[in-house]
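Two proteins follow. First one:
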Amino acid sequence: MSNPVAPELRNRNWLINPRFQLKYTGMLVGVVAFVMLALGVVIGKTANTAAEYAQLATTQAEKAMKESQVNSQLTRESVLMSGNAELLKVVEEGLSETDRQAEANLQAVQSNRAAIEMQRKLVFAVLIFAGVALTVVLTIMGVFITRRVVGPVHKIKRLLRRVGTGRLVVTERLRRGDELEDLFDTFMQMTWSLKALQTGRIATLDATMRKAEATGASPEVLDGLRVLRAQMVLGLTKRLTRTSIV
């Protein structure tokens, strides 16, 4: 007859106690998520501030370029009114150089603004990706770590139920890396003590049976003692046909 509790666990069943494991895994993920959210807010504000400064610099550069163009136009008109061709040529060269410099400054500022905006989007994308990846990793780690605690507890509970029915033969051990080894060792010492006590009782029962046979006890009494002995021995020798592995 197969063990009715054997199918309840499998070696690859990571959620042995879903309520306990998911509770503490959720707490772990929640704390880390809160810290990441706080850092994300700080980094996001910094990135937004840099983008705002870049926008302001671009606006100022555009305004400076417009003012330069207006001033250049007014200067040209004034020189034209003077009728001095040589002065007009010199002024035109200077004004053209000034306009080119203002346009170059504007393009540089606009390029910096585009780079800052790209960096800001990249930062937010990295934060989102890192948050999702870290959440997944922490969830897996939380389930794995709590399984190392829940697995031994579940195994000890199952073995306690078995010992409670009088079956004192325990051959199972914890998996490598499981926690609560001291508790499991204490449980094993308890089973060994119970087996020693049961063995002593069987020896006492055997002596009683021999005395009963020697004194001519009734067959009914002897049969009852033999049945009792068989039940006691059964707890020391019987093994389940199928054991579940946590």
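Second one, unrelated to the first:
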Amino acid sequence: MVVVHPALAASVRSIVVYDVDFAGPGVHIGMPSTDLTFVLPLDQPLEVSWVGTGGPRAVGWSSVSGLHTRAAAIHHGHHQRGIQLSLTAAGARALWGVPASALAGQLLGLDDVDVRLAELPERLAAAGTWEGRLAVLEHALLDAVRRRTRPQPRPEVGRAMALLTRGVPVAAVADDVGYSRRRLNTLVHDEVGVPPKTYQRLARFSGAHARMRAAALGGEVSVARIAADSGYADQAHLAREWSDFAGCSPTEWLRREFPIVQASGDRDTTGWDERSHRATR
């Protein structure tokens, strides 16, 4: 994980450098969350499409996507390198000058969001080290933030989204910030592109996904325990949500993302070895 510059902390949730070896060509599943995704591949362009749509792949040296309720299919060969950023909803305004709702459900390139950053992939490729690439990226992001003068959303909208992320019921959130549920629905949708209930579901799912990955790295996964810890009624509830957002069951997702799997059908516990990879964090 890369340390984010303080001036970018409100906009950039995380910056991850990835350098991954795969057994062969395949598809990585990009999971939905409450963050926006910004990817800058090296060596070969990124090929992305939406899971289950059968639609065309977006191919390019950059990928920007807003909130989405369908997983992304990231097509890869034997090796992938690049930089992936998770952006906050506020980061869309700060970096691109638009609310996150303008990017919701879309797969875009830098040309679509900021033509002044169109040459960033070439500048990253020209840098000889990861340290140099990260310095180029940080400078470009800081410059983009300084160029923007778009107003930020009202504080109560940000508070509402924070409460929704923590699992507070929508009606209680509306009362807390002093809006009717209808008004809250409009404001949240205008800001991020999904209604409050969907935003809340995305937040809960994102937490479950993070717990699933952490448990995987520990060597054993209890889907039932993750469901309980993430606020789902039971394992079946998590499985339905996982299928809705990821396009497959939790067990199938584990098999796809971790090819060396000692699977146990749909039982609660699945153990496996971590796939061979190289990664800089």
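SUMMARY FIELD: The chain has three domains: 6-147, 155-193, 198-280. The first strand starts at residue 12 and ends at 21.
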